[in-house]
Amino acid sequence: MVALVLAITLGYLTWEISCRRSGVFNPLVVHNGVWIIALVVFASRLIDYDDIQSRSWALLAAGLAGVNIPSFLVSLPDQPLPKEHERKPAHEHRPWPGCTLLIPILFAIGIALYLGAVAGTYGIERLISDPGLVRSTQDSEEFLDSFPLPARLCYFLGPFVFFCYASPKISGVRAPRVVRWSVLFFTLAAMMLSLGRTLPFVALAWAGVASTMGSWHRVSRGQRLKRAVLCAAAALTIFQVLGAQLGKLGTSDLRYQQHVTNRSLQESSLTSLVVYITGSIPAFNNLVTDPSATWAYGRYTAGPLLKVFPVAPEAKEISPFVNVPFPTNSYTYLEPYYRDFGAAGIVVFAVLIGFILVKISDWSSNGGVQLAIASLFIGLSAWGPFVNKYTSSFTWEYLIILILIGRAVRHPVRDVRQSAEGVVFEMKRPASSRVAGREVSATRDHVERPVAFRGSD
Question: For the whole prediction, is pTM greater than 0.70?
Fold first, then answer.
């Protein structure tokens, strides 16, 4: 009953914020939409989970409210929202350097290093004959020693490559359509070699949100819905294909079957999907009701930083399994904040995430890198009912790359020219690029100012 009340409340907040922000993208559509689905499926009692304690529901409600409060306050009637003519990009965008060849080459190197690690640890044939073994032991020291962090960072570039080729109007990738589609299919297939769903899902969510935000005023609601359904269908297909390969569809797993209350679900291949959608809620209940829990004071939230600056022992990215009553290790995206700071961490970081989502949504109106960063963070909010991807290493890898690209395409180049009168002018302009045989600058207007007067010699 509580789950259904929370789902209805989230639905109302989403609708209310969307109406008040008419003509402006609602950054909570993804976050709230996925949470509504998870809560409704959980309320259907298709799986007989352990009872959820009142404290767990209260903390979960506080986290959901915290994310929604900033958007709700910004959308109050007396808060002016940007008009369409005020939200046009302030400048034209150059192609992103390195996205056409360099980053795909690094990703290809990452693929080769990953396959080499698999071949050295298990034998390459195990990817086909025993993928479950490869997947279940990828966090072992033996495998990680053969596939170190720099190699993993190269392999993590898969979603970035997919985004660049799926969003050429943002990244500026210039390639024939057949080449772009070939790169997209190859990238998805290469990411699926990891036998995990995270990288392909991140790629689809990132590109899907960007295509919706970038064309918000140019396409109808029906077209936006069609794109969302297409991305969801692709994600479901990948989920089921990898589930079948790993034997995780749930149809023959007694750990799941004895707790499934619906006979039709027991006989279908969707058991694992339902468990994946709903299992993190009872796992979160186990987390917050554990009397032996101790606070980590930032080790989970700052995990990526501790990999680079090992000033303290880093927390493992793969969480321990708990029984709900069957084993699962996803605790919702609130897990790292609770493990680090308890209930206060849930409230503070939920409000912070909500504030960031609404700010970067408005900031994305500049297009280009800003739109890419906004769509990445909004897309990752789709993992809210499952795990936290904001604290993952690849998220910060993409952010750093995007910041460097942003500086590269907007960094001013000094151009000194001398007039006939001997006045030397300094022209500040962004670095230009040659496209189709002509010079293209990132701004229409240049700023010229006299810096010296050179007399006749």
Answer: yes
